[in-house]
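Bug #77: duplicate submission created two jobs. Keeping one. Sequence:
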Amino acid sequence: MKPHIVFVINYFYPDYASTGQLLTELCLHIQKDFRITVIAAMAENGEQGPAADSKSRFAKEQLEDITIIRVKLPKVDKSNKWSRLRYIASYFLYASLAMLRQKKVDFIYTISSPPILGGLIGTIGKRLLRAKHIYNIQDFNPEQAEAVSFMKSKKLYSIARWVDTFNCKQADHIITVGLDMQQTLFKRLAAHSLPANTVINNWTDEQAIVPLDKAHPKVARFLEQHGLTGKFVVMYSGNMGLYYDLENLIKVTESFSQYPDIAFVFIGDGAVKKRMQAYVEDKGLSGVHFLPFQPKEELVYSLNAADVHLVVNQKGIKGVSVPSKIYGVMAAGRTVLGVLEEGSEAYRLIRESGCGVVVEPQQYGEVASNLRTLYGMDQARLAAYGLSGRMYLEQYLRRDISLEKYRKLLLSMSGA
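Kept job's structure:
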């Protein structure tokens, strides 16, 4: 009989969240080797499966060989702290209940979302279901929350750090998504015995996301639809959350108001989007555009519409989180302007691959200066940056490399 893995992962197909897409691909990749149950919230993008019509708290769906248990949760306003906390608490309660109803579980697989509680769900499952816990840390908390001063209470941060460190110590295996994050794990557990751990990079589907010229019909159509034809496009594509300093970086766009052929395009949604839009409206900046998340099948065209992509993190996020958008940009062969701390995983990838330039967070004048340099650069040289990133990704960061690392790790833990 195949080992039974229960993934308690909040986001899952068809959700646009990066972790949802990554974990969907992982589950599909290993479904022939394992019996898989996924416990996830209803998708937030409106593209719901058949369970969306259910009036019960829990509903069941099937994706190929994967059983999905959907949890209905309260609506969340990501710009409202209490709304976020209510959503997180509800998810923790109901996801835990759904997990504990599962039978003959060999592995509980959780990620670090929601913060702290994602790991705690795994600890509870390990104890009560007598299963092994695999803890995939996509973001370290409370370190991430501290970086943006999400709460003011140092005592709460201390308690949260103790709980998550306890979760780490209890885990049978920890997976981090960057070398800098592995170092954070080492520091966290310096005084304790270190659990088995592995670094496995996140990924994108480099066969679906490929370099395309702006003259490609579907790229050209995207540009025309949004009034971007003939523009030098600076793009941010992804979550506009609390951890990227976007509410301050948006102010850089004002210094380009006299450049009619430069367009800033922000694609996605998140907690600070309304603040960004309010700033642009207040300043009357016609060269700044906001678009919704693009359907997965259209992503290759929107990514290739840019001349330069912004890959950013807030100061203090080094060793805490890795912006997954770096992989999609490298796959599309586009130049990167990174606003990242030296030594962080995305910083390392940009430097090693030669796919762009990097500025330290909060150095807004340098961001503007580097954008002007890239804007004035010869097109052949600008393209060379991006293609260097694509070549590096094909050699070291292909999707099949990461997926096989996961598969082999899970099989080794199951004794197969």
